[in-house]
């Protein structure tokens, strides 16, 4: 008998099994990117007060090195930095599928409409002008972490639904195979018996 087709393992239960979103947000990690140490100290201290994990980078290039190793949940990114400005860092992040979904909030003293629109068009979720108001920054950060968490949850749920649909299709194919294979064997055996002259010559067999 032919080997049965392999059935994929059932996916881990994701829908409704995750911890509450607000609980996970309290464990979020934020990467602060700024070339001025004082700015980093102020913002990092502000975030630490609310319990966020904080990573820091003093240049755009350093940020791009850190992100693949310690993937943050959100990036606070200064615009005006030497060598590589924040716009270029954001452009590279959004061009890489591995980092494209990390929310980026620009922090900058550049407050002209063209600067703000340009930053948002690069894929940043927000643009906060300096000097930063702590209450406003924290509120926007919470909002975008919540949105990012919701989107991640939807992606997990969609993946689970797709995996379950595939599993159901495989099980249906397996069920059809299990029913069809024995029936085919019975029919083949019957055909062989009917084709056997010794079988058909026996009156007792013909009477059945």
UniProtKB/TrEMBL annotation:
GO terms for cellular component: cytosol; protein-DNA complex. It comes from the Bacteria. CDD domains: REC_PA4781-like. GO terms for molecular function: phosphorelay response regulator activity; transcription cis-regulatory region binding. Residues 29-145 form the Response regulatory domain. The keyword Transcription regulation applies. InterPro entries: CheY-like_superfamily, Sig_transdc_resp-reg_receiver, WalR-like. The keyword Phosphoprotein applies. One of its GO terms (biological process) is regulation of DNA-templated transcription. Gene3D superfamilies: 3.40.50.2300. Keywords: DNA-binding, Phosphoprotein, Transcription, Transcription regulation, Two-component regulatory system. PROSITE patterns: RESPONSE_REGULATORY (PS50110). Pfam families: Response_reg. The modification 4-aspartylphosphate is found at residue 78. This is Response regulator.
